[in-house]
Write a structure and sequence with these properties.
Elements: H1 15-18, H2 22-25, H3 30-40, E1 45-49, E2 62-66, H4 70-74, E3 100-104, H5 113-123, E4 128-133, H6 148-157, H7 161-168, E5 171-176, E6 179-180, H8 201-205, H9 215-231, H10 233-238, E7 246-247, E8 251-257
Parallel strand pairs: 1-2, 1-3, 3-4
Antiparallel strand pairs: 4-8, 5-8, 6-7
Helix pairs in contact: 5-7
Protein name: Class I SAM-dependent methyltransferase
GO molecular function, one term: S-adenosylmethionine-dependent methyltransferase activity
Keywords: Methyltransferase, Transferase
Length: 259
Amino acid sequence: MSERRVDGSAGDADYGTIGTGYTDYRKPDQRIAALLSEALDGARTVVNVGAGAGSYESVAPEVTAVEPSASMRAQRPAHLPPAVDAVAENLPFRDDEFDAAMTTFSVHQWSDLKAGLIEMRRVARGPVAVLTCDPALVRDFWLYEYAPLVLDTEARRYPAIQDITEALGGRTTVQPVPIPADCTDGFNEAYYARPERLLDPGARQACSAWSFVEPAVSEQYTELLRRDLASGAWDARHGDLRRRPYLHGSLVLIRALPA
C-alpha cells in the first residue's frame, strides 16, 4: 500500500505543494494522445491510473480516473467526471472490469511499481498502455548540462523499461514517442527547442523532479541557463534543435496485451 500524504497524494512527490497551476503547463498534446488512443485499440471503457488533472482522457469514450492527490483532483475541469480517490497498488474495481487501462507520467510516483502494474492488468480485459520515460536516456537531454541533479532525479525515479514489461507480462511492445517542438504537455523534454520556457518557475514546478532540488540550487541552474541564452552560448551548442520538428528523446509508450 502506498504511503498517503496529507492531501491524499501517494508516492515521493507532494502534489499538495507542487501541483498548484499544473494544468497551466501540462496540457495534453494531441499528437501524443493519438498514439495513446491507437495503443488502446478502440477500447470503450478505460481506467486511467494516476490520472492527475485529467490529461489524455479524450482518448476513449468512457474513462474512469483514479487519482490519490486531492490537489490534482481539484484541478480536473468541470466537463470531466470526478476521479476516484485510490492508489494504483489497490484499485477498487472488479477483475476485467474495463476494456483497457492506461497511465501517463505516473509510474515513477508509485511506491510499488509491480503491484500497481499487476492491478492494472487485473482490471483490464485488453491492452494496458503506459506512457513514461526511459531512465537510460534521460541524461542525454541538453538540460543535463545545466541541471544535473534534476535529471539525475528523473533517471533514478523512472523505472527501467524491462521492469515494466516484465510486471505486465503478456505480449508487450515499446514504442519511442517523438516529442513535437511545440508540445503542449510541459515536461522537461517538451522544451527541447524552447529553452526560454524553463526560465519560468511555473514550468519548472510542473515537472516534479525540480521539487527534489533545493531552491537555491534550482536558482543557480536557472541562472546558468539564463546567462547562456543571453550570451548565445546555448544556441552555439544546441541551436539546431530550434529547427527540428521533433525530438527523439526518452519518451516511450509501452503496450501490453494479455498472454
